[in-house]
Amino acid sequence: MENRKEMRTWLNEFNLKHPLVIAGPCSAETEDQVLKIAHDLKDTDVSVYRAGIWKPRTRPGMFEGVGAIGLKWLDKVKKETGLLTATEVANASHVKLALEYDIDVLWIGARSTVSPFIVQEIADALNGTDKIVLVKNPVNPDLSLWLGGIERLYSANIKKLGVIHRGFSTYEKSKYRNNPEWQLPIELQNKFPDLPLICDPSHIAGRRDILQDISQTALDLNFDGLMIETHIDPDNAWSDAAQQITPSVLVKMMNDLKIRTLTSEEADYKNQLNTLRTQIDVIDHGLLETLGKRMNVAISIGELKKKKNVAVLQTKRWNEILGNMILEGEKKGLSEEFVLRMFKAIHQESINNQNKVINS
Ligand code: PEP
Ligand code: MN
Q1: Residue nearest to atom 6 of ligand 1 (CA)
Q2: Which residues pair with 197 in a beta bridge?
Q3: Region 42-69 average pLDDT
Q4: pTM: predicted TM-score of the whole model, two decimal places
């Protein structure tokens, strides 16, 4: 991973004034569907046409993809529209077929990135290819697993590498299908600033109404591109219907996105500031989320104390917490005074909440 500058070269070759846009259906369904969508995406900001041929489904019995015949349809797309083509590969035989049919961009799906065996098998099958290879984050929020996937491909002499952020699954339901956990791609970007970073708002959102917001956050965080599932008849799509949009909605969305261009030093400064501020916003949201969770735990403790008739303030426990936090804070460059003030405020709020529980 030493000579990382070259990682960006493939992206620069597109010579775009806007982010790289990869669009197309979640799944290739029929030849007609594949070609219609492709023709609608021709002459837009889209450079790469995506379609899943082999679909990894969480539960059996759902549509599992049309298989190799879809590769012929993608070949037609390339010939008729000039768009580059992309599909997901999940084992060595997928890779072999995709290379045979000259697919331009191969991506490794979130359910494959979790398995070092699978990633290694794919990396071996791809060894030395000059195709673009994109690694989606693993379904679980584990940065080293993601990095491990990138390293395995890099070691297989694949130079045109990039990553796709598609969010992380959680047990608790939230407004997202897959929680964005933006701090993970941010950390990845800080480690490998030259590795092209693409956001897949479709799989983060799981629904169309928040695609635009997620895409804007990604661009504000300096992502290099977007992969957006696009279908001529989204509601009747054979997979991921709720999150797909029509080509014309995609065009409108791209027009409405604020895309930053680097034209002068001033713009560069503003861009950097904007990126850092967006990072702060993401972290602040995380802080509030964590504090809310802590408060709920404190309330449960209050309920327990009420049952057992125990006093709210447990001085010994509190002094232990404070001592530990001061030591840990020091390691992270936080002053004792700040840690004390912050935890006193948090503790006070917990006590207030517990008192409310006990007196209710
Ligand atoms: C997809 O892109 O359609 C897909 C299956 O995505 P993921 O691997 O992110 O779930
Ligand atoms: Mn999908």
Answers
A1: 109
A2: 163
A3: 93
A4: 0.80
